[in-house]
Structures are given as C-alpha cells and as structure tokens.
Amino acid sequence: MSKLTQEEAEKLLNDAGITWSSSGSCSDRNNSHCTSFEQINSRTVEGIIALKKASRIAINITGGTELGHSSGSQSHWHGYKLDITPSKEISQYITETFEYVGVRGDGAKMYKSKSGDIYARESNHWDITFV
After folding, report:
1. Is 41 exposed, middle or buried (CB count within 10 Å of its CB: 0-12, 13-18, 19+)?
2. pLDDT tens per residue, range 77-123
3. What is the pTM of this model?
4. Do residues 64 and 76 touch, judged by C-beta distance below 8 A?
C-alpha cells in the first residue's frame, strides 16, 4: 500500500468531484484544525472515490491525517481513516447499502461494506476506516 502526498491526494479527490473543508481552512498535518491528506494510504483515497462513484452523492471530507484523532494502528494519522459530512443522502446510502455490524465502544453505530470498510456514525460525522 502506497502513501500519497497532499498534492497527489488533492488531485485525485478533485478529479473525482470530492470536496474537503476544515475549521482552520488549512492542510497542515500537525494542526488539528486542518484537514490533511499528507501520508494518506492510496487505498483510503481509492475507497472514498469508490463511495462517491457508487452512491453518486456529494461527499465532503472534514478529517484526514491531521493530529487530533484517536490513535491506533488503523488511525487517521496512519492514513486509514477519513471523516465525512453526514448529509441526509450519504447517511441514507450508507445505512441502506452496508451491513449493520453493531455499536462501537464510543456508542457509534457501525456499518460494513463488502470490501470490509467500516463506517461509524459519530455525533457530527461519519468516521470511515478503509482496510
């Protein structure tokens, strides 16, 4: 699995029509108010693009590889996770398309795609782990 630079990931996401935003309007990986794609796994970017293509629904990324997320081997920092805006349309697509697999320790309901990706509905976003 290869790692992408900020520029490489931005180009792929932009070409796929996927938007991103941050509370700080920045992409600095070392600032928790930014949304960074630096050192993101290529599989993670491929996974979010596949979701966009399959659902045909607008997707906005609000969290990437920046500081400020939970730690772990399959974490945001290590390039496995993205957070997205929970629009009514994308939330409906996820809950109707993917298999409900229970509740995470923090209370987030989880759904699993056929490829094994986990979609966890946190309070204000979808936390997606691409495996």
Report:
1. buried
2. 999 999 999 999 999 999 999 999 999 999 999 999 999 999 999 99
3. 0.95
4. yes
